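User: Run a structure prediction on this.
Assistant: Running it now.
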Amino acid sequence: MTSSSHSQMHPLRVQTVETLEAEINRLSKARAETAQAIKNLKALLAMLRTTTEAPATESPKSQKATETGTETSKLHEHPAIQTYRDVFRSYPQTGSYELITARVGAGDGDLAAWRETCSKWMLAGYNPKNVQGLIEMFLETVPAREGGGFTFKTIDGIPYRVYDDGDRVPASPTA
């Protein structure tokens, strides 16, 4: 609007007109930015649809060995690690591989209980990086092993195998 037409209007009306003109300019600019963002997202979507590889997350095969010298390239193949990956769609932190493989067996019953625990954890919205909490939940809910005569129980934050006769030993790969 020209300044000559502004001089014939009431000052409050002039202010309203100027405010509306500024809002129209702002929205027009936002529309152009939104159109560009949509164009970029469509290009990204097309690229993702044509790519056959999974999105780039660091592959455990390329990671260095853990501090204890165990190769992560072997640990990431453990069925419990693969089950975690299947449920959460990402690998756990490399430092937690040994904890998971030590606490979760490779038997069908162990893996079924582990998958169920991971699924419950995910559906509850808990942080998948909280592997300690996930393991505690697993050890508290895992059923007694057939023929093993023990259950897992966390006592004062330490996972134990508690046997039918009341004896208990810390749960570890060798216990």
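The chain has seven helices and three strands.
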